[in-house]
Amino acid sequence: MTLEANTEKFTFQAEVARILDLMAHSLYSKKEIFLRELISNASDAIDRLRFERFSRADLAEDDGEPLRIRVAYDKDARTITVSDNGVGMSRAEVIENIGTIARSGTAEFLEALSREQRGDSSLIGQFGVGFYSAFVVAERVELTTRRAGLAAGEGVRWESDGKGEYVVETVDRPDRGTTIVLHLREGEDDLLNGYRLRSIIQRYSDHISLPIVMAAEDESAQAEETTVNQASALWTRPKSELSERDYHDYYRHVSHDYTDPLAYLHSKVEGRYEYTLLLYIPSRAPYDLWVPQARQGVKLHVQRVFILEDSGELLPRYLRFVRGVIDSADLPLNVSRELLQGSRAVSHICSSAVKKVLKLLNDLARNEPDKYAVFWKEFGAVLKEGIADDPPNREEIAELLRFTSTRSAGQEADVSLQDYVDRMKEGQDKIYYLLAPTLAAATASPHLEAFRKKGVEVLLLGEAVDNWLVTGLLQEFGGKRLQSVTQGVPDFGGLEDEAEKEAASKASAEYAALLGKLKEILAGTAYDVRMSSRLTTSPACIVANEAETDFTLARRMRGSGLPSQPVLELNAEHVLVKRLNERQDDPRLADWAHVLFGQAVLTLGARIDDPASFADRLNGLLVALTEDGTTG
């Protein structure tokens, strides 16, 4: 609704309105986080200005004003002001970023908050809704901004009381940047105190490398400004000067995650190339971990100047959960993504960073297995991508993989490949695995029966990435070949004795006629019918033909639930199979054949192509059984 030529009134988008209501009425603990969030946003705005100066000639000129963040208060007006001389916003950016469009994390924030206590403010910031925290303490907020590169008359003023509407108007603003004025609610006057504001800044924002300034409290020096924070890049300071709290505080700033990281590394490398790494392993996955367009969490600095956020040039995609900073002294300040891709220095730095992160994870796995279990639960599926993405480090990544197995203590993935190899049975020369759509399906699979009887451990794999992991990329570990228990004729290596081989050969001869008839009946449905050495209690199962990719991969590719060449295997010791062999002239043999095949399909977790026919055949057999009390 247009009020004047340059003034418009808007209604908040529904999810934003819900967030504002939560800010005003629910998030009551640690109210001072509003200042942390506004300062963090101001710092990001200045970082973006630095970045744009390298790509836009019209922004390259420096106006002589040092980059800084100002915090001020006015007791009489009951206001707190946070301002920066960063990149600023245009009118369109103000409308897009504040109010009319739910930003990427808004819905996830609401969902996460509904699972937490309403008073927990730790979620703010992680989901990109930090600006709205101003309404925790303010009854009305005014924002004035001008984007770098625009004329003075193209400034924008935004105002709202957070109750459903906001106003945007064009104003004159002589300088670029953003100024936010908070009109405090009743009862928040304790914030109108220089010492209080300084203590909040030093607690939450001391690690920010930009100066955060406030007017001097001394009345005789009102015109002077003092820097409240240390205003030095934390990663440039000696480790001996830094505490764990310093590292954790910086992690919260760089990641917008207000839980402590699981681990971090701080390394300064000198030699052919000079660079510093400060990298963190989070303790929980960000909401956009699986969003392809999501930015990765590492920022590149050159001589302490922010250059760009990583989008795959610094760390490979499978390490996209890593947060932190890489600061190089050997790259030009005007470095671009194109220069990064062809830079030997960047290639060296990236390779070193990857190896250090993998070593950090390895140390975590060895020395703090409980923490590593948390990491694996959050990021294990992502790390598995590295088997395909990073061939030079495949062995190191393989050592970090964890799986659930038939010997797992619980449902958690707690078995490494080295654990498996170390406890292999005497005579076992393969690592056995089972791919299934779910862990429950894997645990109940008839394909495991013979392996359980022999006491052979089997890895149970249920994630989509596992198909690619074991069928084409990770074919051996520690000199032991990986073998699917659902593909081809079971190969027990040295675990099968002569008596078992003789029994299998005898069964194949004894059931040859039945197998021939069943194969004829199931022509076009089953690629083959044969006797099984993998079953002990189930009458039948489906396996993939020897020459085919593992059937679970085939199923997910084709969407049918079966391999393209399904083989029906029968258990010679099952009473049903024995009776069918004794009564091969039974007129209902075809019905039994199709029911056995359908039953095997169901235990596989797949889909029967014609469920109505399956039900009709099964009902007919049940009726016959009630009439004569036999299987025939």
From TrEMBL:
Binding site for ATP: 37, 41, 84, 89, 97, 104-105, 126-131, 178, 337
Top-rank lineage group of the source organism: Bacteria
Molecular function terms from GO: ATP binding; ATP hydrolysis activity; ATP-dependent protein folding chaperone; unfolded protein binding
GO cellular component, one term: cytoplasm
Any Pfam family the entry gives: HSP90
SMART domains on file: HATPase_c
Keyword Cytoplasm belongs to the record: yes
Domain Histidine kinase/HSP90-like ATPase: 30-188
Keywords associated with the record: ATP-binding, Chaperone, Cytoplasm, Nucleotide-binding, Stress response
Main localization of the protein described in the UniProt heading: cytoplasm
Annotated compartments: Cytoplasm
InterPro entries to which the protein is assigned, alphabetical: HATPase_C_sf (IPR036890), HATPase_dom (IPR003594), HSP90_C (IPR037196), Hsp90_fam (IPR001404), Hsp90_N (IPR020575), Ribosomal_Su5_D2-typ_SF (IPR020568)
Region annotated A, chain positions: 1-337
Gene3D superfamilies: 3.30.230.80, 3.40.50.11260, Heat shock protein 90, C-terminal domain, Histidine kinase-like ATPase, C-terminal domain
Positions of region (C): 556-632
Keyword ATP-binding: yes
Similarity field: Belongs to the heat shock protein 90 family.
Function: Molecular chaperone. Has ATPase activity.
Subunit organization: Homodimer.
UniProt protein name: Chaperone protein HtpG
Species this chain originates from: Nonomuraea gerenzanensis
